[in-house]
Amino acid sequence: MYLLTDEQTIEDLRIFGKRDSQGLFDLYNHSHTRGAEAVLKEMFTKPLSDQQEINRRSDIIKNFAAMNMRFPFEGALFDMAEKYLIAADEQKKQGTQHSVLSEKEISNGVTALITLVQQIKSFIDTREVIAMKSWSKEREATASLLLDPAFEPVMREQGKAKLSYAAITAYDLLFRHRERNKIEQLLAQIYQLDVYLSVARVAQERKFVFPKALEKGTSILRLKGVYHPELAKPVSNNFTMDAANNVVFLTGANMAGKSTFLRSVSTAVYVAHIGFPVAAEEMEFSVLDGIYTTINLPDNLGIGASHFYAEVLRVKKVASELQANKSLFIIFDEMFRGTNVKDAHEATVEITIAFAAKRNSMFIISSHIVEAGERLQQIPSIGFQYLPTRMNGNIPEYTYTLERGITADRHGMIIIRNEGILETLKDGRKRAVKKIVGVPQSLASGE
């Protein structure tokens, strides 16, 4: 069971990096193998939606972190083994009986696989690993593969002994043809182990917390000290939601930190569903069916849609998912900013009230339209929080710390004046007039 989401949410949360910037994936990706990198990408693309599996994966990584366990294999072994195995596929594509590898490359590939098989056997037989109940499923699957009679001669090989040409030929036939499927299954287990150990290292180094997944449909989200993991000097916040308070109406001036806060919370919820540690001090959450965010919604030029219509379509998509009685986590940053204030006010109020009736889902709606709060305060399940601005003379200062209530902070014109934009425009007009003074009329008029 996987968490439902979409490309808009993936983009909003910057799950994957772009050419000029890294994403969350890169923050967690400290794997030693290309195979593990592919497994990690799959995990980020398909977060889990099963309480037991989320907690089990989280517990695996937590235990590995507590054991301070390092990845027990040399990366060079995988380079040789993978090149060796891929060559068999290339040979099939070319439709030739001749190997695309040299004798030395075949020997290196065979030796690398023998070493990996022996090392994974040693790893799963260690006392600490045997005692790990959460990883028992993976350990038993690996042990079952290694018990296959095909691996008996591999276990008998001496680590430093040089293989004969006949032995290499026999192992080549075994690894690349007869038991290729078992070799790939074994490597898949090692790649997953690489992910777990690498993420455990990230949790240790960054002091991330391991969330606890609660029963689906209970609409509980408890966060202590949550912050965005990509910020150099983050300000953390405490944040709580439940079925009795399943909607939060968030206000605050521009630059007060609303979008960053929304990304911090939604990132924690997303990553927690992968079963990974998150940037917070504590976290408990109800398992969800899906998460949909609307933080940086682009115009849909492909269908000739305005920004407002793109917003309408987004709300329609969310409404359709909610109609199926799914437990969702929904974020809208500045809902209906693409239309006039009157329509935006009315639409924000009506949509937010409709959201509040969906008690098995949770919603955070940020808005500049503080007047909407007057009507929304009549709905018991809607809570109100804001990010304040403190004025130091004419200079706005931001705490980035949540407070309860609604703020009417509006400092747009103060910032514009502080930047001297109006003076620049006026001075620019004066300079243009001065340049014309004393110039022949024919030149001044462009004749």
From TrEMBL:
GO terms for molecular function: ATP binding; ATP-dependent DNA damage sensor activity; mismatched DNA binding. Residues 245-426 form the DNA mismatch repair proteins mutS family domain. Keywords: ATP-binding, DNA-binding, Nucleotide-binding. It comes from the Bacteria. One of its GO terms (cellular component) is cytosol. GO terms for biological process: mismatch repair. The keyword ATP-binding applies. This is MutS-like protein. It comes from Pseudobacter ginsenosidimutans. The lineage of its organism: Bacteria, Pseudomonadati, Bacteroidota, Chitinophagia, Chitinophagales.
